[in-house]
Amino acid sequence: MIANTETYGPRWAHTYDSVSPDAATTARTVDALAAIVHGTGATDPSALELGVGTGRVAIPLAQRGLRVHGIDAEPAMLDVLHGKPEAQQVRDQFSTAVGDMTIASDMISPDGIARYDLVYCVFNTLGSLADGDAQRACLTAAASVLAPHGRLVIEAPVPILDTFTRAGTRLTHLGRRGSGVWLETARHDHVNQVISLESIVLSPDEGVLIQPVHYRYTWPVELDLMAELAGLRKVCRHGGWNGEEFTRHTILYVAQYRLAG
Known about the structure:
This protein is an alpha/beta fold. It folds into two domains: 10-158 and 217-259, Vaccinia Virus protein VP39 (Rossmann fold, 3-Layer(aba) Sandwich), CATH 3.40.50.150; 169-215, N-terminal domain of TfIIb, CATH 2.20.25. Helices cover 24% and strands 34% of the residues. It has seven helices and eleven strands. It is globular and about 50 Å long.
């Protein structure tokens, strides 16, 4: 369940695309996911996106002929998604529903698909869940709707914590954004593995824009253990969507899992 509507809620559905990864990054993501699902041998591949948002990844996958279902906790995000002309063009391949990504029954598509060749959760969406219990529940639910030959793919950041002060705070200059300056203030709760931050734009044209974000990070080996407890087994872990090697310099990784046994 999403714990904080400031982070992921109706107040920023219409600006979500502006903070999402750029077109080149999205293309790499879609290419990799399409290759993974076709690599399963599925003849009529189906995919489920957990936290589909405004359809940045799901729509291009549907355009490639996959049957894609996306669930999201925020109706306003889905409203934006379905308002896009490209979503209308693939409506026969594409469906969405308001749903909780910790509950398996919420993952069944409107046309009755209950087992998917690909289940994926990108852009650190797993971190939007409240705590480790919710994240484990999400992986368990995802495993229950995965086809025997299917793959679960998770994109998540490697926690970088040495930038915080001893008091657990951080102030970062992120550069220019439009006519303004982009800053970030952050606090680290090391007990609960939660980072709370504000993305702040100070602009002479737009004034002051503040977007709060709260996320619960997972260590890569911790995610592997969560997956194992959910009945999954790691296939591979890469340092990006192009299959880069996972090293100590990796800041964003892609982990792939299959059903154990």
